[in-house]
């Protein structure tokens, strides 16, 4: 016989006729809301507890496996972190090297500035020497030109005098 709400209600009405409303209500409230097949016994609860313990044990094992995997991953990240630290140290070394190279270039730049100053001084001296040489050359050229002109005039005058003398004595 299946216990459903209709049969429970009929039982309640019959108990109400026999025992009265209050006693019928008390007795019906002590019955499970569904059939006895749905009521759990202590033995059922012990079995459920054992199954739950097994499930939790399996879950604990899975979590332990996951913990081990995470530990392996953590170790891998530690190795990667160490590698990044090595790369960072290399970059720091490169920065130091570049700083040294920059310092060397500054020294070379200062040398070039010194050379520019020396060459600027040499340029001034060369210009002065060229100007002196040009002035000397012009002075000598004028002197020679003057000497040549006087010499040519003397020759022309001498030739003219000889020509007059030759004409007069002939």
Could you characterize what this model shows?
The relative contact order is 0.03. The radius of gyration is 64 Å and the shape is rod-shaped. It contains three helices and no strands. By secondary structure, the protein is mainly alpha-helical. The termini are far apart. The protein folds into two domains: 1-39, no CATH class; 43-148.
The share of residues in extended strands comes to under 5%
**Main β-sheet, in a few words?**
none
Number of strands: 0
Structural class category: mainly alpha
Number of domains: 2
Shape designation: rod-shaped
Q: Total number of helical segments?
A: 3
SSE order, as H and E? HHH
Let me know the average pLDDT: 88
Q: Please tell me how large the radius of gyration is.
A: 64 Å
Helix content: over 70%
What is the oligomeric state here? single chain
The end-to-end span amounts to 190 Å
Secondary structure elements and pairings:
Blueprint: H1 5-19, H2 21-30, H3 42-169
Which key phrases capture this entry?
single chain; 170 residues; 3 helices; 90% helix; 0% strand
Please give a quick description of this structure.
This protein has 170 residues and is mainly α. The protein is 90% helix and 0% strand.
């Amino acid at each position: 016989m299946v216990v459903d709400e209709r049969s429970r209600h009929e039982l309640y009405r019959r108990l109400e006729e026999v025992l009265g409303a209050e006693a019928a209500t008390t007795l019906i409230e002590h019955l499970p809301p569904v059939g006895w097949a749905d009521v759990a016994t202590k033995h059922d609860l012990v079995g459920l507890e054992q199954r739950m313990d097994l499930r939790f044990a399996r879950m604990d094992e899975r979590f332990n496996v996951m913990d081990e995997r995470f530990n392996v991953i953590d170790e891998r990240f530690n190795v990667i972190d160490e590698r990044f630290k090595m790369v960072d140290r290399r970059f720091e070394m490169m920065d130091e090297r570049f700083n040294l190279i920059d310092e060397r270039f500054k020294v070379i730049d200062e040398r070039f500035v010194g050379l520019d100053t020396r060459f600027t001084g040499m340029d001034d001296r060369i210009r002065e020497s060229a100007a002196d040489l040009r002035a000397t050359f012009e002075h000598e050229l004028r002197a020679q030109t003057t000497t040549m002109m006087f010499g040519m005039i003397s020759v022309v005058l001498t030739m003219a005098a000889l020509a007059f003398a030759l004409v007069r004595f002939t």
